[in-house]
Amino acid sequence: MAIKNAPLSCSVCQLHKDSLFKNCNKEELTHMDCNKNNLFFKKSQYVFMEGNRPFGLYCISEGKVKISKVNSDGKEQIVRLVKPGDVLGYRALMASEKYSASAIALEDTKVCFIPESELTTLLSQNSKVTADLFSLLSKALGEAEEKITKLALKPVRERLAEALLLLMRTYKNTDEQLFSISISREDLASIVGTAKETVIRFLSELKEDNIVSTKGSTITIIDEKRLIKISQMYD
């Protein structure tokens, strides 16, 4: 169960300028502050579950979240990675459908929850936010199509390289020279779309080739250029 967290003002949020709400005016941000909920999720907690009905929009203020589905074989497939500043649950909310996937915290995560009524009012009053939301929906559709194509055409080694680069592009800080991330082999296998044992084997090969290093669950990308080359072999 989510824990209510100390309020975080939208108007002073460092992520505001790059978020869905970047075109909100001061009055709209103040109104949102008064009507949203600030939630805290521990690692592995569900932000929302596949099959549940959406009641609003989630905006990540701190932490990492995975969007995943369980296939017919009972295996998890991670379909999207979410970073601070990203919003969750907008497709199901706009389509008035149940969630088609679950959102799960990869680490302790702070989230702003904006109720459906608040978002509806904002969209009716601010055409720029509406346009930004449709742009977000369009981008998400394109990324989903690209992911399906790559999963169908690329061998596992190339998909693993691409998954590691995706993690880097999503979560790397601008001041980091080498990118490192703590991620379970189960989660990495769910991104790649293969078995955990297969990921471990190919990850060991990348380590032997001095492309990555590992320590426990932490993976560090040592040679980004060679990793890119591997990921593009079948493009």
Structure description:
By secondary structure, this protein is α+β, with helices and mostly antiparallel strands. 42% of the residues lie in helices and 23% in strands. It is built from eight helices and twelve strands. The chain has helices at residues 26-35, 90-95, 116-125, 127-153, 156-171, 185-192, 196-208, 224-231, and strands at residues 3-4, 37-41, 46-48, 56-62, 65-70, 76-82, 87-88, 102-105, 109-115, 180-182, 212-215, 218-221. The chain has a five-stranded antiparallel beta sheet. A four-stranded antiparallel beta sheet has the order 3-8-5-6. The termini are far apart. The relative contact order is 0.13.
Outline of this structure?
The protein is α+β, with helices and mostly antiparallel strands. 42% of the residues lie in helices and 23% in strands.
From the structure above, extract its key features.
235 residues, alpha+beta, five-stranded antiparallel beta sheet, four-stranded antiparallel beta sheet, 8 helices, 42% helix, globular
Please give the number of β-strands: 12
Q: Order of strands across the widest beta sheet?
A: 1-2-9-4-7
Assembly state: single chain
Structural class: alpha+beta
Strand content: 15-25%
Q: Report the mean per-residue pLDDT as an integer.
A: 88
| Shape field | globular
Rg of Cα set: 19 Å
Beginning-to-end CA distance, first to last residue: 43 Å
Roughly how much helix do the residues carry, as a percent range? 40-55%
**What's the helix count?**
8
Biggest sheet record: 5 strands, antiparallel
